[in-house]
Design a protein that fits this description.
The chain contains 11 helices and 14 strands. The longest helix is centred in the last third of the chain and has 19 residues. It is globular and about 55 Å long. It folds into 2 domains: 46 residues, Uridine Diphospho-n-acetylenolpyruvylglucosamine Reductase, domain 2, CATH 3.30.43; 207 residues, Uridine Diphospho-n-acetylenolpyruvylglucosamine Reductase, domain 3 (2-Layer Sandwich). By secondary structure, it is an alpha+beta fold.
Length: 265
Amino acid sequence: MYPYRYHRPATVSDAGEMLAEGEDARPLAGGMSLIPVMKHRLAAPTDLVDLGSLGDLVGIAAEPGVLAIGAMTPHATVAVSGTVKEAIPAVAALAGGIGDPLVRNRGTIGGSLANNDPAACYPSAVLALGAEIVTNRRGIAASDFFTGMFETALEPGEMIVEVRFPIPAAASYRKFPNPASRFSIVGVFLARFADGAVSVAVTGAGPCVFRIEAFERALAATFNPEALTGLSVPPDGLTGDLHGSAAYRAHLIKVLTEDAVAECG
């Protein structure tokens, strides 16, 4: 690691000030991504602002039509939460399939979203459900938050405080995991809303989470797996690596979407 200054703020306001004042300050949530990158000297922040003592950022609450999850809430807590299972069971299932027990107990929803790994699970839920990412400065719509590989709309000194998920009529997360890392080779989050609208968001298959509008239109008209007959995902622009070609991932997207529809049906 390169040298850095360590800060442990007492309040969210203090954390925001420390992040704004540092030359290259980074918030430290669970550290599941940032610490390994620093160990390999691929990142050299001048300051680390540890959010671990900010109890205000931990918690889960169901409000009328909305599930709110604090940014520092660990994946393991989301996975077993009765509130989450009642409001959006697919989000609890998604959290329970992230990584291994160490990652689930240390990693946080806010850290995952701020890092925006192209194979992370949570971005698909946030985008499909049209969640709002609340920061210490503003609220950011999911459609505006993810801007590219490991890139988000967060500005210097800005950190995630809470994620607010609209509660759908039904939802499902289907994932084809890497057997070693448990990251998504392809993950599909499908949400169906009370007005009949359908949203399909994909992770693991490209440089950033994305939606498939052709699938959404077909499923909004007829919500069953057969509605996708004749439709396909072009492999152009999708990820191809030792785990699967772009064409393979394109095929998986459709298969997992059909499985998600069947689960919701």
